[in-house]
Design brief:
275 residues, mainly alpha, elongated
Length: 275
Protein backbone atom coordinates (compact mmCIF):
# COMPACT_ATOMS: atom_id res chain seq x y z
CA UNK A 1 0.00 0.00 0.00
CA UNK A 2 1.53 3.25 -1.08
CA UNK A 3 2.66 5.48 1.79
CA UNK A 4 1.23 8.50 -0.03
CA UNK A 5 -2.20 7.06 0.61
CA UNK A 6 -1.91 7.76 4.32
CA UNK A 7 -2.95 11.36 3.84
CA UNK A 8 -3.69 12.90 7.20
CA UNK A 9 -7.36 13.15 8.03
CA UNK A 10 -6.42 16.13 10.13
CA UNK A 11 -5.01 17.89 7.07
CA UNK A 12 -8.52 17.93 5.70
CA UNK A 13 -10.05 18.83 9.02
CA UNK A 14 -7.58 21.63 9.54
CA UNK A 15 -8.40 23.18 6.19
CA UNK A 16 -12.01 23.39 7.29
CA UNK A 17 -11.66 24.63 10.85
CA UNK A 18 -8.19 26.01 11.60
CA UNK A 19 -9.10 29.60 10.87
CA UNK A 20 -12.25 29.42 12.96
CA UNK A 21 -10.51 27.53 15.76
CA UNK A 22 -7.67 30.02 15.89
CA UNK A 23 -10.06 32.92 16.13
CA UNK A 24 -11.71 31.26 19.13
CA UNK A 25 -8.47 30.17 20.79
CA UNK A 26 -9.07 26.49 19.94
CA UNK A 27 -6.07 25.69 17.73
CA UNK A 28 -4.02 24.01 20.48
CA UNK A 29 -6.29 20.92 20.94
CA UNK A 30 -6.38 20.39 17.18
CA UNK A 31 -2.60 20.64 16.99
CA UNK A 32 -2.20 18.11 19.80
CA UNK A 33 -4.48 15.67 17.97
CA UNK A 34 -2.58 16.26 14.73
CA UNK A 35 0.66 15.42 16.54
CA UNK A 36 -0.84 12.27 18.02
CA UNK A 37 -2.15 11.20 14.64
CA UNK A 38 1.20 11.85 12.96
CA UNK A 39 3.04 9.86 15.63
CA UNK A 40 0.59 6.98 15.32
CA UNK A 41 0.84 6.87 11.52
CA UNK A 42 4.63 7.04 11.61
CA UNK A 43 4.77 4.13 14.03
CA UNK A 44 2.22 2.16 11.99
CA UNK A 45 4.39 2.66 8.93
CA UNK A 46 7.69 1.70 10.59
CA UNK A 47 6.60 -0.89 13.16
CA UNK A 48 2.99 -1.80 12.30
CA UNK A 49 2.18 -3.86 15.38
CA UNK A 50 3.32 -1.06 17.71
CA UNK A 51 1.40 1.46 15.62
CA UNK A 52 -1.74 -0.65 15.98
CA UNK A 53 -1.23 -0.76 19.75
CA UNK A 54 -0.98 3.03 19.82
CA UNK A 55 -4.13 3.25 17.73
CA UNK A 56 -6.06 0.88 19.99
CA UNK A 57 -5.07 2.87 23.06
CA UNK A 58 -6.16 6.04 21.32
CA UNK A 59 -9.48 4.47 20.28
CA UNK A 60 -10.10 3.58 23.91
CA UNK A 61 -9.29 7.20 24.73
CA UNK A 62 -11.96 8.43 22.29
CA UNK A 63 -9.71 8.99 19.27
CA UNK A 64 -12.50 8.20 16.83
CA UNK A 65 -11.92 8.21 13.08
CA UNK A 66 -8.26 9.34 13.13
CA UNK A 67 -7.33 6.57 15.57
CA UNK A 68 -9.33 3.99 13.61
CA UNK A 69 -7.61 5.07 10.41
CA UNK A 70 -4.21 4.60 12.03
CA UNK A 71 -5.23 1.10 13.07
CA UNK A 72 -6.43 0.28 9.54
CA UNK A 73 -3.22 1.58 8.03
CA UNK A 74 -1.19 -0.53 10.45
CA UNK A 75 -3.17 -3.60 9.43
CA UNK A 76 -2.42 -2.84 5.78
CA UNK A 77 1.28 -2.52 6.55
CA UNK A 78 1.14 -5.92 8.25
CA UNK A 79 -0.31 -7.44 5.09
CA UNK A 80 -3.87 -7.73 6.43
CA UNK A 81 -5.15 -5.94 3.36
CA UNK A 82 -8.71 -7.26 3.27
CA UNK A 83 -9.29 -6.37 6.94
CA UNK A 84 -7.76 -2.94 6.39
CA UNK A 85 -9.94 -2.33 3.33
CA UNK A 86 -13.13 -3.31 5.13
CA UNK A 87 -12.29 -0.97 7.99
CA UNK A 88 -11.48 1.90 5.64
CA UNK A 89 -14.80 1.43 3.87
CA UNK A 90 -16.61 1.67 7.20
CA UNK A 91 -14.53 4.69 8.19
CA UNK A 92 -15.53 6.43 4.95
CA UNK A 93 -19.21 5.73 5.65
CA UNK A 94 -18.86 7.13 9.18
CA UNK A 95 -16.94 10.18 7.96
CA UNK A 96 -19.79 10.94 5.57
CA UNK A 97 -22.28 11.37 8.44
CA UNK A 98 -19.86 12.63 11.08
CA UNK A 99 -19.82 9.48 13.21
CA UNK A 100 -16.69 9.30 15.37
CA UNK A 101 -15.40 12.54 13.84
CA UNK A 102 -13.78 15.24 16.00
CA UNK A 103 -15.98 17.89 17.58
CA UNK A 104 -15.08 21.46 16.78
CA UNK A 105 -16.80 24.58 18.12
CA UNK A 106 -19.58 22.45 19.58
CA UNK A 107 -20.35 20.57 16.34
CA UNK A 108 -19.26 17.17 15.13
CA UNK A 109 -17.46 17.48 11.84
CA UNK A 110 -18.51 15.86 8.59
CA UNK A 111 -15.96 14.99 5.91
CA UNK A 112 -15.94 16.89 2.66
CA UNK A 113 -15.91 15.21 -0.75
CA UNK A 114 -12.13 15.27 -1.15
CA UNK A 115 -11.59 13.61 2.24
CA UNK A 116 -14.12 10.91 1.42
CA UNK A 117 -12.53 10.35 -1.99
CA UNK A 118 -9.15 9.85 -0.34
CA UNK A 119 -10.49 7.27 2.11
CA UNK A 120 -12.34 5.32 -0.58
CA UNK A 121 -9.18 5.44 -2.67
CA UNK A 122 -7.18 3.96 0.18
CA UNK A 123 -9.76 1.22 0.57
CA UNK A 124 -9.61 0.50 -3.16
CA UNK A 125 -5.85 0.01 -3.05
CA UNK A 126 -6.13 -2.24 -0.01
CA UNK A 127 -8.78 -4.33 -1.79
CA UNK A 128 -6.43 -4.56 -4.79
CA UNK A 129 -3.59 -5.83 -2.61
CA UNK A 130 -6.00 -8.34 -1.09
CA UNK A 131 -6.84 -9.63 -4.57
CA UNK A 132 -10.46 -8.45 -4.24
CA UNK A 133 -10.67 -6.84 -7.68
CA UNK A 134 -14.44 -6.32 -7.84
CA UNK A 135 -14.46 -4.60 -4.46
CA UNK A 136 -11.46 -2.52 -5.52
CA UNK A 137 -13.32 -1.42 -8.63
CA UNK A 138 -16.39 -0.46 -6.61
CA UNK A 139 -14.35 1.56 -4.13
CA UNK A 140 -12.29 3.41 -6.74
CA UNK A 141 -15.41 4.32 -8.70
CA UNK A 142 -16.91 5.87 -5.57
CA UNK A 143 -13.65 7.72 -4.92
CA UNK A 144 -13.54 9.18 -8.42
CA UNK A 145 -17.21 10.20 -8.25
CA UNK A 146 -16.36 12.28 -5.18
CA UNK A 147 -13.02 13.74 -6.26
CA UNK A 148 -13.08 17.33 -7.55
CA UNK A 149 -12.36 17.59 -11.27
CA UNK A 150 -9.06 19.00 -12.42
CA UNK A 151 -7.21 18.23 -9.20
CA UNK A 152 -4.09 16.23 -8.38
CA UNK A 153 -6.32 13.95 -6.37
CA UNK A 154 -8.32 13.12 -9.49
CA UNK A 155 -5.10 12.22 -11.32
CA UNK A 156 -3.89 10.05 -8.44
CA UNK A 157 -7.19 8.20 -8.19
CA UNK A 158 -7.35 7.74 -11.96
CA UNK A 159 -3.91 6.17 -11.82
CA UNK A 160 -5.15 3.87 -9.07
CA UNK A 161 -8.10 2.88 -11.27
CA UNK A 162 -5.69 2.12 -14.11
CA UNK A 163 -3.73 -0.25 -11.88
CA UNK A 164 -6.93 -1.97 -10.78
CA UNK A 165 -8.12 -2.25 -14.39
CA UNK A 166 -4.80 -3.78 -15.43
CA UNK A 167 -5.09 -6.32 -12.60
CA UNK A 168 -8.49 -7.22 -14.04
CA UNK A 169 -6.89 -7.44 -17.53
CA UNK A 170 -9.04 -4.55 -18.74
CA UNK A 171 -6.11 -3.04 -20.60
CA UNK A 172 -8.31 -0.76 -22.67
CA UNK A 173 -9.56 1.09 -19.58
CA UNK A 174 -6.09 1.02 -18.05
CA UNK A 175 -4.59 2.65 -21.14
CA UNK A 176 -7.36 5.26 -21.30
CA UNK A 177 -6.86 6.20 -17.66
CA UNK A 178 -3.07 6.31 -17.96
CA UNK A 179 -3.27 8.59 -20.98
CA UNK A 180 -5.62 10.86 -19.00
CA UNK A 181 -3.04 11.07 -16.21
CA UNK A 182 -0.25 11.69 -18.70
CA UNK A 183 -2.21 14.52 -20.30
CA UNK A 184 -2.88 16.07 -16.90
CA UNK A 185 0.76 15.73 -15.81
CA UNK A 186 2.91 15.53 -18.95
CA UNK A 187 6.17 15.79 -17.05
CA UNK A 188 5.54 12.58 -15.15
CA UNK A 189 7.86 9.85 -16.43
CA UNK A 190 7.33 7.02 -13.93
CA UNK A 191 4.02 6.02 -15.50
CA UNK A 192 5.53 5.44 -18.95
CA UNK A 193 6.26 1.80 -18.09
CA UNK A 194 2.62 1.36 -17.08
CA UNK A 195 1.48 2.88 -20.36
CA UNK A 196 3.82 0.51 -22.20
CA UNK A 197 2.34 -2.46 -20.35
CA UNK A 198 -1.24 -1.41 -21.07
CA UNK A 199 -0.42 -0.74 -24.72
CA UNK A 200 1.08 -4.22 -24.96
CA UNK A 201 -2.09 -5.57 -23.40
CA UNK A 202 -4.23 -4.12 -26.20
CA UNK A 203 -1.75 -5.24 -28.86
CA UNK A 204 -0.33 -1.81 -29.69
CA UNK A 205 3.32 -2.87 -29.73
CA UNK A 206 4.48 0.28 -31.51
CA UNK A 207 3.16 2.50 -28.73
CA UNK A 208 4.48 0.10 -26.11
CA UNK A 209 7.97 0.24 -27.65
CA UNK A 210 7.93 4.03 -27.76
CA UNK A 211 6.72 4.47 -24.17
CA UNK A 212 9.19 1.90 -22.86
CA UNK A 213 12.12 3.51 -24.69
CA UNK A 214 11.21 6.86 -23.12
CA UNK A 215 10.94 5.27 -19.68
CA UNK A 216 14.31 3.52 -19.92
CA UNK A 217 15.99 6.67 -21.16
CA UNK A 218 15.09 8.25 -17.80
CA UNK A 219 15.29 5.13 -15.59
CA UNK A 220 17.86 2.85 -17.28
CA UNK A 221 18.43 0.68 -14.20
CA UNK A 222 14.83 0.31 -13.10
CA UNK A 223 13.97 -3.43 -12.91
CA UNK A 224 10.36 -2.69 -13.89
CA UNK A 225 11.52 -1.36 -17.24
CA UNK A 226 13.57 -4.47 -18.01
CA UNK A 227 10.72 -6.70 -16.88
CA UNK A 228 8.32 -4.97 -19.25
CA UNK A 229 10.89 -5.07 -22.04
CA UNK A 230 11.06 -8.84 -21.62
CA UNK A 231 7.27 -9.08 -21.60
CA UNK A 232 7.03 -6.99 -24.75
CA UNK A 233 9.73 -8.87 -26.63
CA UNK A 234 8.11 -12.17 -25.68
CA UNK A 235 4.76 -10.92 -26.98
CA UNK A 236 6.52 -9.94 -30.21
CA UNK A 237 7.97 -13.42 -30.53
CA UNK A 238 11.59 -12.55 -29.78
CA UNK A 239 12.32 -15.08 -27.04
CA UNK A 240 16.07 -14.46 -26.95
CA UNK A 241 15.56 -10.75 -26.32
CA UNK A 242 12.91 -11.56 -23.73
CA UNK A 243 15.28 -13.88 -21.87
CA UNK A 244 18.05 -11.27 -21.94
CA UNK A 245 15.74 -8.61 -20.50
CA UNK A 246 14.41 -10.88 -17.75
CA UNK A 247 17.93 -11.92 -16.77
CA UNK A 248 18.80 -8.22 -16.53
CA UNK A 249 16.02 -7.86 -13.96
CA UNK A 250 17.65 -10.51 -11.77
CA UNK A 251 20.99 -8.75 -11.99
CA UNK A 252 19.39 -5.54 -10.80
CA UNK A 253 17.09 -7.02 -8.16
CA UNK A 254 17.49 -10.33 -6.33
CA UNK A 255 14.16 -10.13 -4.50
CA UNK A 256 10.94 -8.21 -4.93
CA UNK A 257 7.97 -8.34 -7.27
CA UNK A 258 9.94 -7.62 -10.44
CA UNK A 259 12.49 -10.34 -9.70
CA UNK A 260 9.73 -12.81 -8.83
CA UNK A 261 7.91 -12.09 -12.09
CA UNK A 262 11.09 -12.32 -14.18
CA UNK A 263 12.09 -15.59 -12.52
CA UNK A 264 8.62 -17.05 -13.11
CA UNK A 265 8.73 -16.00 -16.76
CA UNK A 266 12.13 -17.61 -17.26
CA UNK A 267 11.03 -20.82 -15.58
CA UNK A 268 7.90 -20.93 -17.72
CA UNK A 269 9.96 -20.38 -20.85
CA UNK A 270 12.46 -23.11 -19.90
CA UNK A 271 9.63 -25.52 -19.08
CA UNK A 272 8.15 -25.05 -22.55
CA UNK A 273 11.57 -25.52 -24.15
CA UNK A 274 11.99 -28.81 -22.26
CA UNK A 275 8.67 -30.00 -23.63
Amino acid sequence: MRKSLSISIFAGLASLVMAASSSHGQSQPLEREEDRYAACMTMADRVPDKGINLALAWIADGGGVPARHCEAYGLARMGEHAEAAARMMQIAKDMRVGKDMPVRMGSRMVANAAMLADMYGQAANAWLLAGEIVRAEEAIDIALSLSPNGTQQELDLTLDRARIAAADKDFGLALKDLEFVQKGDPGRKDILVLIASAARGVGDYTKADMMLADFQAVFPDDPAGHLELGNLRHAQGDKDAARKAWLAVLLLEEDGINAAAARANLEKMDFKLDD
